[in-house]
Amino acid sequence: MDNLSCEKRSKIMRAIKNRDTGPELIVRKLAYRLGYRYRLTDHSLPGSPDLVFKRRRKVIFVHGCFWHVHPDCHISHIPKDEHWRLKLAANQERDRRVIELLEERGWSAHVVWECETVDLEKLSSRLRRFLG
Ligand SMILES: [Zn+2]
Ligand 1: distance of its center to the CA of 59 in Å? Predict the structure, then answer.
C-alpha cells in the first residue's frame, strides 16, 4: 500500500468514526441508564476522554478494537502493511501515555472496548465495578 492510498484510507476511517453512533453511544446510554452523570469529551484532559465523571475523578475511553489494538480480540488484527503496523503501534503507545498522565493527575481511567459493547449485562457490571 502506498502513502496515497494509506492517506485515503485514514480519511475514510475517520469519517466512519461518528461519536453519535456505535460503541460510544451504547456506553453513554448505558451509563446514563445506570444513573451515572458525566460530561462528554473533555479536551482539557489528556487524551480527551469520551466520558468524564468529574466528581468521581474517573474517565472512560471507548476504544475501537482495531485502532487501539485490543489484545487477543477477534476484531483486532495486526495488518501486514508496515505503515499500518507503525501507526497502530503509535496509537497503543499514545494510549499508554495518556493513562499515565491521567493517573499522575489523580484520575482513574477505564477502557471499554468496542467488542465489549455487545453484551450489555456484562458491560453494566463492568461500569458499576469501575464507577462504584
Ligand atoms: Zn475487542
Answer: 19
How far does the centroid of ligand 1 lie from the alpha carbon of residue 78, in Å? 13
DSSP 77: -
E-strand stretches of the chain: 39-40, 51-53, 58-63, 108-113
* Contact partners, residue 1, CB within 8 Å, separation at least 6: 9, 81, 83, 84
Expressed in angstroms and rounded, the spacing between residue 74 Cα and the centre of ligand 1 is 6
* Grid cell of 90 as nine digits: 503509535
- Sequence-distant (6+) residues with CB within 8 A of 52 are 38, 39, 40, 41, 42, 45, 59
Express each pLDDT in 23-46 by its tens digit: 999 999 999 999 999 999 888 999
HSE on the CB side for 62, CA within 13 Å? 27
